[in-house]
Amino acid sequence: MLKIEAIIQPAKLDTVKEALIEAGIEGITVLEARGHGRQKGHTEFYRGREYTVDLLPKVKLEMVIADAVRDKVVAAILGAARTGHIGDGKIFISKVEEAIRIRNDERGEAAI
Amino acid sequence: MHSRALKSLILFVCLGVPTLALAVAPRIGPSPPATQAEVAALTQSIRDAQSSGDNAWVLVSAALVLMMTAPGLVLFYGGLVRRKNILGTMMQSFAMMGLITVLWAVVGYSLAFGAGNGFIGGFEHLFLRGVTLAPNPNYGGTIPEQSFMIYQLMFAIITPALITGAFAERVKFSSMSVFLCLWSLVVYCPMAHMIWGVGGILNFANTAARWPVFDFAGGTVVHITSGVSALVCALYLGKRAGYPQEDMQPHSMVLSFIGAGMLWVGWFGFNAGSALGAGPLATSAFVNTQFAAAAAAITWVITEWLQNGKPTALGAISGAVAGLATITQASGFVQPMSALAIGAIAGVVCCFMVFRVKKFFGYDDSLDAFGVHGVGGTMGALLTGLFACSAINAVFGKNAAGSPNPAGAIDGNWHQVINQAVGMGIGWALAIAGTLVLLFLVDKTMGLRISASEEAQGLDLSQHGEEGYVLN
Fold it and tell me: Which of A47, B22, B365, B388 is spaced 20 to 30 Å from B92 by Cα?
């Protein structure tokens, strides 16, 4: 099992979600996040004071998937989230030891 | 057959109806003269009719002015602070609704509107003794005095609440409550008495007043006293920890926006209600209020647009509030076009004060209570002297020829600008002296500022043991 963490532009959430459903992903967790990578922040003005906001609003998707669908999922996210501009986000993939469904104690891939 | 019936109907209508009308018409001839009792009854019912109209408007206005404090000011200020301080900031204003009300009933109204001397009222209305449902000819002669009392209470509530914008995010709740209660008695009540109270040294209705000041709805009484005191508080308390290096942007512009909208609407009660009646003067103040707010919102936004390249939402609502604070004093004295001009000036000057002057001196008037209310009130005091027009409000009565005596400089009475400046000067002096003494006393006995760790934690948790936003 693999855990996919994808940080994307908030505006891309709907298209990415639809692409993932099309790719057969059933479970997904969405978090509102703030952060920055290479993208610099922007400035905001409040009553003439300039504020540099370097933590920008992002959306973070988390899902745990079977090893077999890895490429399909990555392709779906890439296809749906890419605008080609800086700030499009990142995808992190890591190994997951175990998954447990709380309702009935199912284990492993059956639980995801 | 059919046409005959029609003809007789027409005949009846043409002849019969006028005859019938003549028969029931009153006899022409001298009627018995109305008795004195009848005249008195008529006079009384006319008086009652006017009273119910005036009273309806004043009571609605009182409710509108209370709405300016909560939820108006509460949301406006609440949105401008950081999220850990929202409840504390809201409580600072809301506390005034409780504390000042009780204080007003016990002693405040008496000190502001009792006879007393030229500077402060007496104690004859302690516990509202003698404040009845009968009108008081000195204070809106057509409405019950209790209506006037409750209307004025709403002003007494919002004035200290405005000050809380200066010491946002760093003051102890207990000390703030004590300070603002004392402030209401030491600064607000005397100022209200001098300008509006019977026999007040600045009251234009007092023929013995040497400097008759025009303050229709409290530009000096409310906005100068609160705004200048706010500046003194900001200087005395010092900056918030981390100011100005750390980012402290408003945590919810949405809340502030809603609050500002309520302030604008409530201000119709504040200004137009100050006519203490539902007559044309209320209309004049209503129109001027709207015009000044609109003009100031536009000029503030244009000023910052030219400076920073973007028209901000906070600029628009700050401009509107600045325009409203500035027109307050003039609202029942000036022509609508003067109100547009006053608003336009207010937007530019207050924007400049908040953007440049505050930065230059480096004081932390956190929510710009001075920059908006103090500056707006001060400008309003002087501009009223300039634009007051006897055609709107014949303040100084009429001359032998029956035309109104000149009111402001626009009528040729330049001396009124000096009168206004004297009123403004007294407002500034009283606010500075009173606030400094009270801050010192409260600081030495109770301590004004929360500790550094409490400040980092936020007012909500440290002062009230609550959170504005929880995750569940």
Answer: A47
